[in-house]
Amino acid sequence: MFISKFSQLGVRMMKGLTKVPVMSAPRTSHFNVVLQPLFCIQRHEPFCSTAADKAQEAGNKEKQKISVTFVDKDGEEHHITVPIGMSMLEAAHENDIELEGACEGSLACSTCHVIVADMEYYNKLEDPTDEENDMLDLAFGLTETSRLGCQVIAKPELDGIRLALPAATRNFAVDGYKPKPH
Amino acid sequence: MSFVRSNMAILKALKLFSKTFSSLSSHPLRVCVVGSGPAGFYTVEKMLKAHERAEVDIIDRLPTPYGLVRSGVAPDHPETKIVTNQFSRVALNERCSFFGNVSLGSSVSLSELREIYNVVVLAYGAESDRVLDIPGEDLTGIHSAREFVWWYNGHPDCRNLAPNLKSTDTVVILGQGNVALDVARILLRPTMELATTDIAFHALAALEESSVRKVYLVGRRGPIQAACTAKELREVLAVKDLYVNIHEADLLKSPKDEEELKNNRIRRRVYELLSKEATSGPSHPTSGQRELHFVFFQKPDRFLDSERGKGHVAGVHFEKTMLRENGDSGKQIAVGTGQFEDLKCGLVLKSIGYKSVPVDGLPFDHHKGIVPNVKGRVLKYSSGNLTQFEGLYVCGWLKRGPTGIIATNLYCAEETVASISEDLEKGVLTSTSTSSKPGREGLLQLLDSRNVRVVSFNDWEKIDTEEKRLGRLRNKQREKLTTWEELQELAMK
Description:
The complex is a heterodimer of chains A (182) and B (493). In chain A, a hairpin with a 5-residue loop joins strand 1 and strand 2 (77-83). Chain A has 182 residues and is of the alpha+beta class. In chain A, helix 1 (2-18) crosses helix 2 and helix 1 crosses helix 3 (45-61). Chain A is globular and about 35 Å long. Mean pLDDT of chain A is 72; it is low at 1-49 and 169-182. Chain A has helices at 2-18, 28-43, 45-61, 88-94, 119-122, 130-136, 168-175, and strands spanning 65-71, 77-83, 113-116, 146-148, 161-164. Chain B has 2 domains: 2-127 and 357-492, 3-Layer(aba) Sandwich (Rossmann fold), CATH 3.40.50.720; 130-354, FAD/NAD(P)-binding domain, CATH 3.50.50. Helices cover 37% and strands 21% of the residues of chain B. Chain B has 18 helices and 18 strands. Chain B has a 7-stranded mixed β-sheet, sandwiched between helices. In chain B, strands 6-14-7-8-10-9 form a 6-stranded parallel β-sheet. A 3-stranded antiparallel β-sheet of chain B has the order 11-12-13, with no helix packed on it. In chain B, helix 6 (145-152) crosses helix 7. The termini of chain B are far apart. The model of chain B is unreliable at 1-6 and 16-24 (pLDDT under 50). The chains are: A alpha+beta (182), B alpha/beta (493).
């Protein structure tokens, strides 16, 4: 868990150093690319000196990519390639796929909820931690194969994985109207 | 498959149509969102995305944006506040303007807003509290959890709450939801760990001198019905050097309880955590150790006055309860058993729910505590019937009651904005075709004529920068400015 988060930071750092944000199209993802490294420096100060080394490592691995399919709320498919080590949340943002990420991958919200379309692929993932399960508790339209996009990190075995975004509005009508039990 | 495809094609055509519709219309769509918490900002974001001609103003009665992300989310949950990055990007969109220090009801009325804008979305939440309505509720030393939370989060309205943490060692919290758990954690956590957060300076100072050692979290029902989530529970159970007491007898399950657990993942995981805690750890606290007691099946009957009758709370008189199935809903509710007991304490925090407050001219369902609405469309009573209140919408707690997490507002806003889009397509909003509304300019003129000093997003950024600077001096994430005067003065610089 710690290690995977660490390498994510590394990837973010590297992106911040090498990529020039495209300001002509101010989409969320570009802002993220600019903001996340800053955020990392502020909040994870003790780690940042070594994060650069990790970025190097991540850089070597980046040549290797897997293919991932996102199925959006309207059922439309988006085929993308994702470098090994990158989270599905970041991958979605890089490719302008509408996956929310309110807490920017810090495991404090459930907005990057994705549903793994095939059980076969779901079983290839490491079990969710208690912390991820705590957040999944609050996800809308939770299924047996639900995960948080920020916790699904691209690895070779996941090549070909399909991730569906929950049809939020439809589920809201069911889940959102529970009166407070008091 | 081809059927699905053709459906999708229709859907896309409809989307295109609605975008074209609003962009062909000669006037911009003037939208005002009241309240700049998660419900307000998500509404703005969705509105800007759905309608290219929409110009959206978001107003707040405070000089600061973000609502409960600033004044509700606990100071030791900085990750939860990261969402403000997203909200600030929305505020900086060229078609969006933030106007702080503008209060609906006193700076501008609802009918004025409806004159100025094509669409008004109310997302001002719930700024009051439910009451127990039992004897002694007005004794000093009894606060709502909301007030206490606002106090430690530096909300200017509760700057001077001054809860007395020095003359008692025992606090009773009524309620077992996440707010109750937050409050318990703040009272019990070593202050060293809070010192680097954005907790208000006055609260940190008071907590450092606190004599509180024991906190009781009291619920009317059992551990299966506790309203908290696993994350918050896990956190409070993990507070350093804390003795936690849960009676194992309270954990016994009835067949009905089993059924409730089976159908609810959150309840199941909360129950598991409580059970595990009840059977592990020492059976007695060590001397001087802080204590957290989970008390189930007790409902407050009245508050006890201090012996000298000085009007200060000295304890709570509880009635033991049992669960009974409610005929209509099938839910298990707490009913009194006629057995009573007292719990002595010097401070009571009521965490039994927030309550929305209506403004003049706004239909309001006092029983449910929400604005009557269908998917965000406000309904009004006219000649005995409920009809749509043209151009008026709600989102967030005002629409669905004070429950849920930040993300709930994302879906809530999606729904409200979908209703607005649908109404625009159907031509329900007559004002969009007949005449141009003054929008932003009109609002600013009106506020200027009333000498309301508007705080822009740029002004807020001055406050933000100063708070961060003050925080750095004290090795904190942020040192909030906590009085209206300080906030306004800095904004005006």
